[in-house]
Design goal:
The chain is of the alpha+beta class. It has four helices and twelve strands. A hairpin with an 8-residue loop joins β4 and β5. α3 packs antiparallel against α4. The termini are far apart.
């Protein structure tokens, strides 16, 4: 993270304090934050959702998607190949699912935010329209599937 900061012009890197134990090399531009959200500036907010890491964080950009809002979800809310649905995993490499409580927490964390678009960690896995509805539908479907 320190190298990312340096290469991008010494920009700050924000990491939720719940993930502090995973940091091996501390950098001057690394900032730990607490709480559920952190407004950065101009309609950009970090949202702590938890997930496969206690401090898993998404970024919401209110003005994104032509003013309809965009969510940058990394792999916490994972856009699946058909790009109409998302999924949630504790461990992607080992295909270990998250439990229903964690999925509900993730869905609830993003619910207050308006977003039409979701940019996930891996291109072209993006939802270009209807992102918020996709999270709602997918969380319900996921919880039904793991609950038997």
């Amino acid at each position: 993270m320190g190298e990312w900061s340096r290469r991008f012009g010494d920009i700050p890197v924000y990491l939720h304090a719940a993930d502090r134990e995973h940091v091996v090399l501390h950098a001057d531009r690394l900032h730990f934050w607490d709480g559920d959200t952190l407004p950065l500036h101009d309609g950009i907010t970090l949202i702590r959702t938890g997930g496969h890491f206690a401090g898993s964080t998404l970024l919401h950009w209110r003005a994104g998607a032509e003013g309809k809002g965009a969510l940058f979800s990394g792999d916490t809310i994972y856009v699946v190949p058909d790009r109409r649905w998302v999924s949630f995993m504790y461990s992607y490499p080992n295909l270990v699912p998250l439990n229903a409580t964690a999925v509900r927490r993730i869905a609830a964390a993003v619910e207050p935010f308006d977003f039409d678009r979701i940019y996930a960690a891996f291109h072209p896995l993006q939802i270009l329209t209807g992102g918020k509805d996709a999270v709602r539908r997918s969380a319900d479907r996921y919880i039904r599937a793991i609950s038997g």
